[in-house]
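Supplementary Methods S3. Input chains for the assembly prediction are listed below.
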Amino acid sequence: MKAGPPFRLGLILLLAPIVLWLSLLVILPHIDMLLISLRVRVAPRVYETSLANYVEFFTEPLYWNTFARTAIMSVTATAMTLLIAFPVSYYIAKMLRGRTKNLLFLLCLVPFWVSELVRTFGWMILLRETGIVSNLLQWAGLTAGPVEMLYNDAAIMIGLVYTSLLFMVVPLVTTLDSLDDSLIEAGYDLGGNGFAVMRTIVVPHAMPGIASGCIVVFMLTLGNYLTPILLGGKDSLWFTDQIYTQFITRFNWELGSAFGFLLLVLSSIIVWIGLRLSGQTLSESVK
Amino acid sequence: MIPSIPQPRAFRVTYAAYVALFFVYLMAPLAVAAAFAFNDSMFPSLPWNGFTLDWFVGDAEPRLGVFHDGALTESIGISAFVAFWVTVLAVGVGLSNAFLFERQTFPFRNLLYMLMLAPLVVPGVILGISILVFSNSIINGIDNAVGVEIDALRPGLALVVLGQFAFITTITTLVISARLRKFDLSLEEAALNLGATRMVAVWTVTIPYLKPALIGAGIVAFLMSFENFNTTLMLVGSDAPLTITMYDRLREGSTPALNAVSLMLMVVSGALALLSVFVQRNRGGR
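Predicted structure tokens for the full assembly:
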């Protein structure tokens, strides 16, 4: 681009929307949230700067237990998503050809276009006491009476993995697709068995896809609200629900902001570690 | 494990069965959510009592169909209204951002690019509360300074639009930038050589080239807005968009009218998804 006065004006015109957007809707709100989390109310409309909200988080077992539980469940869900999605991605990328391959890949994207609310509703119909799975089990004679399968950790896990699959399958299929078949053949020719080829050729090649899939899935799971609440019920103990409770039910914005900030920090740290371990940058992973 | 390497038959069959099972898992919740819209029963669960269209067209309690359920139709209208404004804003700003990042050089360009990606890594709930907190601070600040309360910044549709716009714009920016990057600058220069002004050249050459990306980004923005829940939940006022209304009904336990809405959502988003694939493929090759 040629530089000159008219283009400088153009630059300012192009910068204005993005600066307004990012400063007013992203940066300043987060700074404000941090500031509010660092104050306590000492009298109506009188506030003091203090770390009390963070102290409360660490001294109240319910809060940090929920926090740790959310983190552990998210890690588990990410690992399970990877384990379930990898063979399927490999099948689509390496075992299939042509139309079938494209069709199955598109089929994996379908749930993404459907609202998360609808997907979760579908799982509720399947898993509830009067639901399909319970009726199937009774029909098969495996259980004597109706079984309630909602409102437990397994139900939460099924829903979380389901919601996350797309974000794992797409990067995995993309990276596996770029692996040349002749490399796999060479592995077998050199005497490797299926497992050795998998471990030394396929998985290392797919590592960038595995890393970006895991990062995205972990982030989305950690910040998920609908699935744990609807499938886990009242005892789901998900950290975003704590944030919601503090903000909307208890109207304790100071503590809620502290919670929000802690979740943001956890999410950012994990993303950062993931990017570091895989040697990628954020802009590469989002594409 | 590729087709050219022979594998035991048992292994191949097991593997294929696993993949088939995966697709059953993938489709099962969608299929049942859709199917129970037609069940002639008060609850979206078994037993199957026969086929009915009551949950779409029924016009009296207790069998109130979607089309006659005032609260549901109103919330669909609200969602469409919100999604319309989010789409207009996000595509507009996304287009501006694409030109900024693809055509301009300026200090801190990379920093700004990283910041532009940031809304993608912020959980929706947190984006929602941070905007809620900040808008409240602005209201209080202005109230203290000049004694005017700006009610538009209280939780409500304006905030919902802003909250969704805050992260959807990142996606529209990425979609439009990707296409602008492939644009051959000599086409624009040719227009300039033929006497067009800069604005005319961009308007008659570059924008038509970007059209598939603009339509694609618009469809994605509309759908993401229509289906958004997390950010909306934190910013919503008394006018509830569809996802909020559905969520409240889900918790109370609902009639299959909710399945009917779900089916309609699936059909509309499926159609829009196909449309966006079609638009991008049809013109993408040029």
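Confidence is low (pLDDT under 50) at residues 1-5 of chain A. The longest strand of chain A covers residues 39-43.
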